[in-house]
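pinging the channel bc i need a second pair of eyes. not urgent but kinda urgent?? the chain im working w is below, pasted from the shared doc
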Amino acid sequence: MWMPTYILAIDQGTTSSRAILFNDSSEILGVAQEEFNQYFPQDGWVEHDPEEIWSSTIKVVNEVIASSGIQAREIAAIGITNQRETTVIWDRKTGRPIYRAIVWQDRRTADYCDELKSEGLESMVTGKTGLLLDPYFSGTKVKWLLDNVDGAREQAESGELLFGTIDSFLLWRLTRGKSHKTDATNASRTLLFNIHDQRWDEDILQKLDIPKSLLPEVEDCSADFGFTDESLFGAAIPITGIAGDQQAALVGQCCFSEGMIKSTYGTGCFVIMNTGATAVVSEHKLLTTVGYRIDGKVTYGLEGSIFIAGAAVQWLRDGLGLISDAAETENIATENPDAHGVYLVPAFTGLGAPYWDANARGAILGLTRDSGVKDIVTATLQSVCFQTRDLLTAMAGDGIKPDLIRVDGGMVANDWLTQCLADISQIAVDRPRVTETTALGVAYLAGLRVGLFESLDELSEQWQRERHFEPQMKTEVSSMLYSGWLDAVKRVRS
């Protein structure tokens, strides 16, 4: 009997929507990508238009199907991976969003988070969710929308509105309103989900005044989420995998054993360590999160989140016009490996782990008359490595000292950056053959559900290393550069 064998991954990210087609040997057969607009209506506010996210998603899926020369009915399953925490509320009847999507980077609820902290609520929230009271997460964004959009609260209380992170919004649209669901990884980033009993938390919902009717049903990462409406792509394709982008990368890197660690370099940078069945509580402001949930069994992760990584390079290109293409940075840094005392602290939307300073702002420090464009470019790439070291230092403080990181994301195609990461962090770095690990991870999750893959062990056997990087910089040089970074961070803290 004929069986479809292709898997389509929808990778809906912070700056672009992508569709990637895999075969059952995890080989990439086609990629389509579309950037969309970023909106910054006020200082610290970051928004997306959900309709642009939707139209760019449909466009790239159709493009990748057409360019690969396959029929939609040959796709065995779709997996969705997404920018996490980004918040959309839409009308249950019309499907229309009531406001733009409030992006994970957005800091508008910083004051409200401070209010909740002053009420002594952070330990309760952290105990239940593994997260900190920070505007990064969805919960306070939902409250803001209900309190600030005309009529939203009344509509919510009468059951007319739905909330979702981007995965839920896309799923609802793809199934023409038949499926309002999310997975355990995305739920674990909302600030509303108890990661220990795997349920929406009544106490937090009550405190934030969020009606439960808004919330999606929470499934495993590999589950039956629904079928695409036939009118969209020409066939009803099962959607059987959903995971937040960083957790999807954990799966794509096959970090299935306790203690394994991956670091993804996209718009931001996110390090996750697999902590197995134990929800490890950090003493150094790392997050406890759901790594993945398969067959009802939760694997937890310890996560460090950096808000700005690739976005800083984007800023060099679009904001300052110092480069015309991100790829130029590798040549510049290779020619100019020393930033000559220049440090860029990319706190454009505050600082994430381990500082969690919503009001910190970016700065370029250490400039002299001799400083030039090349120093700023090198300092930008180094900032990504310093921030990673911040996270690894926090993990070490929690008694966890990894000796190897698996890296992925667009930035690590840059050999100079990847070597710099090994040097600054003083840790070995492995880069896989397939660096599209976010999309690959959700393809794995979707494929597991429809029987294209048998088990996690089978997936582990498919993982291949492309290159290994060992630290080449002397420890004392690395320590000296890092102490300069810590001094620069101190200067931008609020």
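so The radius of gyration is 22 Å. and The mean pLDDT is 93. — does that match what u expected or am i reading it wrong
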